[in-house]
Amino acid sequence: MDSWETTFMEDLNQLRVSINSDFCALALLDADGFTLRWKLASGNENERYRSMKFQPGRGLSDTVVKVGRAVSLNLAEIIFTRKLHEYPIMLAESLRSAYAVPLHDGIQVIGVLLIGDRKKRLYRPEEKKAAEHAGERISKLVSRHSLDRLPPN
Length: 153
Hints:
Blueprint: H1 3-18, E1 23-29, E2 36-42, E3 53-54, H2 59-65, E4 71-74, H3 75-80, H4 88-92, E5 97-105, E6 108-117, H5 125-144
Antiparallel strand pairs: 1-2, 1-6, 2-3, 4-5, 5-6
């Protein structure tokens, strides 16, 4: 594992443990600025997240990246709106609740930090704030690295 991966994994593990969540993952936009790919995960049950990518206008790319602010996700609502196919990470990791935070490089969104649980959960304001602070910290770390040096998966 590269040193940048170790640093990011420590942040993901620390966030997951501090808010008692089941899952925490980092997705970054490719160099094209449109395709979002999962890079690292903590608490994952499998490695399927590594092959997932999101095209513009769908799922997290549409809600978090386009809007540029945090979003709460609930599996029941996603099923009700018939958009489950747009959130494959929810299925792959059996998540019933999630909170997604955009990662910013100045004003531009460069990725997403996702925390999730395999049970229905409402995230408290202090848990959301912890995720947002972790997102700011990770954004700064990502900004220091060239996105071209991050592994493609």
